[in-house]
Automatic annotation (TrEMBL):
Higher taxonomy: Bacteria, Pseudomonadati, Pseudomonadota, Betaproteobacteria, Neisseriales
UniProt-recorded name of the protein: Phosphate acyltransferase
Enzyme Commission code: 2.3.1.274
UniProt xrefs under InterPro entries: FA_synthesis, Phospholipid_synth_PlsX-like
Family: Belongs to the PlsX family.
Length: 357
């Protein structure tokens, strides 16, 4: 049975979202036990008012809550008994295979990194998320989505490694994942110096690196992993979310403009429902803090119970696939290969410098 630790107090609406989301998840997944972490009395009251399978729920008390606007370092220092930290502690202690929180992103990342540490050889964890694709049977993993706004070429290469290993661990039947580097063009001469250096590292690595990819190719099933720094990745993610919301509003407005459009909307209703279901952002809720020695999933703070349920599902599938153990094993080999590439480039650079008159 898979055990997940849930920060029940995190998020904009805390218990009014996390509890019904957890119950909906338990009804879908029978082989799961949830450790609901938070205010014991409040949790008991919230669970009492529902038809809850209590045999598969444990309440873990925590006396503090990290605010959504609280400074990460202050939360790390002053909130050692917060529901967020206690949930992550369950993963460290081996009581749970993954932790899920809708709380403060910065505080969650700082706490998770402090408690769990990073995989050997990985300098920084990244925020990763599976994105929809034009192929209904395919999802594209994109990282980093905001944890590291300024990265070196080596760190971007590390993101490529941990992203590739995650996809490989969760979908071994699909072979070696295709890795693309997000850039302003597909040519290897384009991009910043850091991107150009990353391109060289990945080209000579043992990854299945297909080259640069532009933003409009992310959803076209061209790659399995898209690598970017957190600055670019976060802007792209927020732009996508805003574009989907804008288009949904425009479609709704057009169909309600006049009686003829309303009649057309009735005829188009099945197609519109299908499109809405496919692009429902709640289905893609649940970002992965990748590179840690433990599975931590970040739910959107403003999601509803359906979105939180999907975040729990993301944690469940990662825990079920034993992705962490597979990632750690694969990362060691891939990083060793990258180190050889860097050493060879240093030798070539030195030889070139010596031979220059």
């Amino acid at each position: 049975m898979i055990t997940l630790a849930v920060d029940a107090m995190g998020g904009d609406a805390s218990l009014t979202v996390t509890v019904p989301g957890a119950i909906a998840f338990l009804k879908k997944q029978p082989n799961v036990h949830l450790m609901m972490v938070g205010d014991e009395a409040a949790l008991q009251q919230a669970l009492k008012s529902t038809n809850t399978p209590m045999a598969r729920i444990s309440i873990i008390p925590a006396t503090q809550v990290v605010g959504m606007d609280e400074a990460p370092q202050l939360a790390l220092k002053n909130k050692k008994d917060s529901s967020m930290r206690v949930a992550i502690n369950q993963v460290k202690e081996g009581c749970a295979q993954a932790a899920v929180s809708a709380g403060n992103t910065g505080a969650l990342m700082a706490t998770a990194r402090f408690v769990l540490k990073t995989i050997p050889g990985i300098e920084r964890p990244a925020i990763a998320k599976f994105m929809p694709s034009s192929n209904p049977d395919h999802m594209t993993l994109m990282l980093d989505l905001g944890a590291n706004v300024d990265c070196s070429a080596e760190q971007l290469a590390q993101f490529a490694v941990i992203g590739s290993e995650l996809v490989q661990a969760m979908h071994p039947e699909k072979g070696q994942p295709r890795v693309g580097l997000l850039n302003v063009g597909t040519e290897d001469i384009k991009g910043t110096e850091t991107i150009k250096q990353t391109f060289k590292l990945l080209t000579n690595s043992k990854l299945n690196f297909i080259g640069n990819i532009e933003g409009n190719g992310v959803f076209n099933d061209e790659v399995d992993v898209v690598v970017a720094d957190g600055f670019v990745g976060n802007i792209m993610l927020k732009t996508i979310e805003g574009a989907v919301k804008f288009m949904s509003g425009e479609i709704k407005q057009e169909f309600s403009r006049n009686v003829f459009n309303k009649m057309a909307a009735v005829a188009a209703l099945p197609a519109l429902k299908g499109m809405k279901a496919k692009l429902d952002p709640r289905k893609f809720n649940g970002a992965i803090f990748l590179g840690l020695r433990g599975v931590v999933i970040k739910s959107h703070g403003g999601t509803d119970e359906i979105g939180f349920m999907y975040a729990l599902e993301e944690a469940y599938y990662e825990a079920k696939s034993a992705s962490l153990a597979k990632i750690e094993h694969g990362v060691a080999a891939q990083l060793a290969a990258l180190e050889e590439v860097r050493e060879q480039e240093a030798l070539d650079s030195g030889a070139s410098h010596i031979s220059t008159p």
